[in-house]
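Reply to dn_fold:

You asked what the input looked like. This is it:
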Amino acid sequence: MTVVALVLAAGAGRRMGGPKALVRPRPGAPTLLEAAVGRVRAAGCDEVVVVVGAEASAAGDVARATGARVVEATGWDEGMGASLRAGLDALTSGAEDAEVALVTLVDLPDVGPDVLARVLDAADGPATLARATYAGTPGHPVLLGRHHWAPVRDSATGDRGAREYLRVTDHRLVECGDLATGRDVDTVDDLRRSDAADA
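and this is what came back:
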């Protein structure tokens, strides 16, 4: 079974002061994008596709330097839905052997390889549909088997991503609250607190 990681990293990061993909928690540390790609590889994903948008050239250069394939979401400012659609379109046309996509976000620094690997354990082929939960609260990553790519793509609008599809479609919940909070980082203060917790 071939699993592709789909890292959504297209946002402008307005509250962060710039695209989160390019932010470093501290001088000399990897960017959030480099760290996210490293985590999905450590978890066992066979291929990594990164969706960029804001400052696409710079973010794309960072992603390509990690060996990831880069996809640009031209309508990225619409929200997560545009990024997810662009990523799924790229997988549909360019990852013929892939059966499952592990969808994660660039701004989840405490969602480590242990969380990703636990969710990946739920993969069982193209019918897979699962997502992480943290103390019962749904979050990322989300596992999308190939059979779900088209309907998820069609329902992904605004900043909702796969939320509407998951709301009406049975899927497996994988509790990961013992491993991480699953919270994203939106501001520099969020990032510093997360980095201090990991130190």
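Residues 2-198 form a domain with the Spore Coat Polysaccharide Biosynthesis Protein SpsA; Chain A fold (CATH 3.90.550.10).
Hope that clears it up.
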